[in-house]
Fold each of these.
Amino acid sequence: QVQLVESGGGLVQPGGSLRLSCAASGSIFSLYDMAWYRQAPGKQRELVAAIRSGGSTNYADSVKGRFTISRDNGKKMVYLQMNSLKPEDTAVYYCYGGYSWGQGTQVTVSS
């Protein structure tokens, strides 16, 4: 079973940027489809972005054009570059892959 550890969250002003990272264990990381989810207070967890083992990506409509998911199979890392952040992006962001969840990292967008 893969283990996932997120980092990179924090407090940022509206319009700012953050880059989330997800470090994975496991020898077959390159075969996993990976994704970022988020959960805001009082809301259900939702898919933000996904990247397949072959590299294709898809995004939630709310983040298209602002967020970019990428992966580095050699380093067993998944990234989420978040630009033009809005207050409604405030949530705990989770990395998912290989049937495992990370512990989450808080992203707060506020002035």
Amino acid sequence: QVQLVESGGGLVQPGGSLRLSCAAFGIIFSEYDMAWYRRAAGGQRELVAGISTEGNTKYRDSVKGRFTISRDDAKDTVSLQMNMVKPEDTAVYYCFAEDDEYYWGQGTQVTVSS
């Protein structure tokens, strides 16, 4: 059974940092492109950052220079380091894995507020 389990969400003040992690189970992790998506209340799910099997990364413009995605194929995990967070980063963050098939995590809430 495939599972993507996110952790690290919570409440953080504007300008602060947070690190999200996603542990993958039931897939050959190194064969999957990984990504983080988010959905704000009332909004659509949007791509935040992605990392390919080769380690190539991409980011949505609003997080470039603030967020960093990384993967550890030895531990089957993908992380999202979030720095200088803003209130508009508030959302549920989802881990995503894609190869011939794709899988979603159940999400972790990130709230940026003072």
Amino acid sequence: QVRLVASGGGLVQPGGSLRLSCAASASIFSAHMMEWHRQAPGNERELVAKNSAFGRIDYIDSVKGRFTISRDNAKNTLYLQMNSLKPEDTALYYCKIGGIWGQGLQVTVSS
């Protein structure tokens, strides 16, 4: 059974950067859509970025130009590089690959 292990959350000041990682236990990258979602307190979970098996990449408007989703097929790992972080980016972040969710990562942007 494929498992996802996410890492990289934390506390950062506004304007700072974090990189989230999501490692898969098996080689599934060639076949599935890869996604990062987030859920802020009191809000519904939202799709932040996605990377299709064909390489198409999409972002929600609020993170365009600041976040970058990428994948390393050799390492079976999905990344989300987050730059110029804002307080409104504070949320639990989740990776999702092929319908499987990783554990939530707390990202807090605060001075």
